[in-house]
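Today's session is about reading a structure prediction critically. Students often jump straight to the picture, but the first step is always the sequence itself: look for stretches that repeat, for charged clusters, for runs of hydrophobic residues. Only then move on to the predicted structure, which in these notes is written as discrete structure tokens rather than atom positions. Here is the chain we will use throughout the hour.
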Amino acid sequence: MLWESFIWATSSSVPYARSAGLTTEIAGIAGRYKRHKASWQTHLEKSKQRISLALEHADSHKPCLVMGAGLCLDIPLEHIAQHPAGCVLIDAVLPLTTRLKLLRYRAIDYKLADITGFLAPFWSSIEGDEIPAPTTAPLPLKGYACAISLNILSQLPLPFAGSPPSGDTECKLTAAIQKAHMDTLLAMDCPVLLITDYDRRETTGGTLKTIPTVAPHLLPGNPDQSWIWDIAPLGETGPNQIVQLKVGSWYIEK
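Below is the predicted structure for this chain, in token form.
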């Protein structure tokens, strides 16, 4: 808990990120990683491998863009720092640990940004106001060699809806936010690497329950690769429960 409190207290963030729970979420991720580093290793290495492969085909004259940088646990920093035109990482929260980690990489820039564009409208609204769901995401459509959406698609709706969403309003909002992100990725003028979980598998006392975290119709077909992320081994979320995520990667050429 002390480590999580430190991450929470020393993180910078965009307006309303703390109100929305994003700083608490990233602190929780830091704590779970510390407790389950070995269980997470396969997922983190697979993510890094897919990014490294995408960078091999990226235009050397333009920087690469990584959305969902967070703690940089799943980013091959040494590799992306070698891209001739550099790399830009964006997220709504910048932990101090990430800022210190990036000091050694001059070619990597980190920008605070709300990837949904919905935090301020939603969290500054007066209770009872109807806020229209976003139809596009505020992402740059031009100027990058490769755009990487890194383990965030399923997470984007969390400041606005439960997981899984509860009721018709939350379901529609979740789908709209994820669709806006996907539509904008597909509108970018560069190749896109999408890495996201799309199923959560909860095993409790031998009973398996599968919960979609991204609707299948929002994904660009079958993944190039898929793997299991042992995100919460036995005991993390309950004495008799194991939680796993089914993760896929899609490389979309333009």
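Discussion point for the tutorial: The two ends are 45 Å apart (CA to CA).
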